[in-house]
Write a structure and sequence with these properties.
The protein is an alpha/beta fold. The protein is built from 16 helices and 22 strands. The strands form 5 sheets. Strands 8-7-6-9-11-10 form a 6-stranded mixed sheet, sandwiched between helices. The chain has a 6-stranded mixed sheet with strand order 21-20-12-13-14-22, sandwiched between helices. It has a 5-stranded mixed sheet with strand order 2-1-5-3-4. Strand 7 and strand 8 form a beta hairpin. Helix 4 packs across helix 5, helix 8 crosses helix 13 and helix 10 packs across helix 16.
Length: 506
């Protein structure tokens, strides 16, 4: 009897079951359920690992070489390299993770109708439906950015758009992804009031890919955007069936890889209203930095790499079930907090920073980043361990951010330390400020550092209430912000190398 043409795939702990054609690649279907493919499915990053609980999913020679015999024996596979030939149950618990929205109260001048604010992130999408008369959030939609199936970082997307002729594909993917979020909003408010407009913010690459702008200039030095201004569409142009066919506007970028998400963050943090020096940091794969006051701001971006999100870490994962999110020393003993109160299965960005800080405190890690006593690894909890190369990845990431901060503060010419430094995004929301200071990531007094949540989304909502055309172009704000190319600073390389070391004297 010939084998069935379809196999059954079960995903735990979601409890979802679906049929897949025998021999079909798992990549596309698993991405829809949160599994990430940071390197675009090239088998380089190991972030798309899933575990076989029951059934069969044969390993390939390439997987065996990348993962090693122990992981293969424990059932781990690379989703980007796997095809389904038999019924199988897969554990994808590590991909359960909340997406940061925003419920911050803010001052506004009421206007009639509804508005939609969208934070278009490299990894995630968040959209909120607002009543513009009351400021109330009437609907929220979150999802993974569908482009992430083609790589987790912006340069992977640029490469696909330019070298592989994929601009049209990436543009269609993101427009449909956001359209799906909008279609998921409650229908009652949309029937009672018209949607006046939609405001989107995102980094420079997301700006180009959503708007269908060729990102080729962003693929090489000096990384200037092809077009950084306000982009306007009608909803129907984008394939969005919204009553009234409202205006859709993608806010302008600030230069280089500093996009409208940072412009929105400046609005949300009120930096241009600050009399004392203040700062805004968005710490991700591409870290954005802003410092200044009401007289003017300096901004820059730096390629920190994915370590803050658990990327390129041997047992790295997102902040989800099974992740070590906190590490501390208590009476000389290591204590690890695992999300979900289960056996540790990996470590996320905040846990990595904590672990290295604890290692420095205990003497396990030297200021150079080397393990002491000839150790090759450091066990943390439940089989999760830190390798020497993991510490090096954190040094590279924190060194890039710390160097950018030092250069911007020096170029600003101010002798006064920032009175407040706002941390935007999920990592900034959860990282221990004490640990971040101990590893040299944030050299500011603890009382000066404040988590600010999703400032991009909050800023997009604030922009919905700027009704004058000249206000929406943000010409005045952009005149007060100067973009700094860090690599062009004569002291950049020396500052970067120096910033990689961990501080001594604690």
């Amino acid at each position: 009897m010939p084998p069935a043409s379809f196999v059954t795939i079960r995903l735990e702990p979601l409890g979802e079951v679906f049929k897949l054609e025998r021999g079909a690649a798992l990549r596309d279907i698993l991405f829809q359920h949160g599994v990430e493919f940071p390197c675009g499915g090239r088998g380089r990053c190991m972030r798309c690992r899933v575990r076989v609980l029951r059934g069969e999913l044969p390993s390939t020679p390439e997987e065996e070489q990348i993962l090693g015999p122990r992981d293969i024996a424990e059932g781990w596979r690379l989703a980007c390299r796997s095809s389904a030939y038999a019924d199988v149950t897969l554990d994808i618990a590590q991909w359960e993770a909340p997406i940061l929205a925003d419920e911050t109260a803010f001052a506004f001048t009421p206007r009639s109708g509804l508005g939609i604010a969208v934070d278009l992130g490299t990894t995630t999408l968040v959209a909120q439906l607002l009543d513009l008369e009351t400021g109330h959030v009437l609907g929220v939609g979150t999802a993974l950015n569908p482009q992430a199936a083609h790589g987790s970082d912006v340069m992977s997307r640029v490469h696909m758009a330019v070298a592989e002729g994929g601009l049209a594909r990436l543009t269609a993917l993101i427009r449909e992804g956001i359209g799906a979020l909008i279609r998921g909003f409650p229908q009652a408010p949309l029937e009672e009031k018209p949607v006046c407009e939609v405001v989107l913010v995102g980094n420079t690459v997301m700006h180009h890919l959503f708007c269908g702008i060729d990102p080729e200039p962003l693929s090489h030095y000096p990384f200037d955007p092809a077009c950084d201004g306000l982009q306007s569409f009608q909803a129907q142009e984008l394939g969005w069936e919204i009553p009234g066919d409202p205006l859709v506007q993608f806010l302008p970028c600030l230069g280089g890889f500093v996009g409208s998400d940072i412009l929105a963050g400046i609005l949300a943090a009120g930096l241009l209203g600050s009399e004392a020096p203040a700062g805004l940091l968005d710490l991700g794969t591409n870290g954005e930095i802003v410092f200044g006051d009401r007289a003017g701001l300096l901004c820059a971006s730096t390629a920190a790499g994915p370590a803050f999100e658990g990327g390129r870490i041997s047992m790295g994962m997102r902040a989800s079930t099974g992740a070590i999110t906190e590490v501390s020393l208590e009476d000389g003993n290591l204590r690890c907090h695992v999300l979900g109160n289960v056996t540790a299965r990996g470590i996320c960005g905040s846990g990595l920073v904590d672990a290295v800080a604890a290692g420095l405190q205990s003497g396990m890690i030297a200021s150079s980043g080397r393990f002491t006593g000839g150790a090759k690894e450091w066990p943390l909890a439940g089989g999760v361990k830190l390798l020497q190369r993991d510490v090096r990845e954190l040094q590279l990431a924190k060194g890039a951010i710390a160097a950018g901060i030092r250069i911007l503060l020096r170029q600003s010419g101010t002798k006064e330390a920032p009175g407040k430094v706002y941390l935007a995004g999920a990592f900034g929301n959860y990282v221990s400020h004490a640990s971040a200071r101990r590893v040299g990531l944030l050299d500011f007094p603890p009382e000066a550092v404040a988590p600010a949540g999703n400032t991009a989304l909050l800023g997009a909502k604030l922009a919905l209430f700027r009704t004058e055309p000249e206000e929406r172009h943000f010409d005045e704000l952009r005149r007060k912000v100067r973009h700094v190319r860090l690599a062009a600073d004569p002291a950049f390389e020396d500052t970067y190398v120096d910033s990689m070391r961990f501080p001594e004297g604690y």
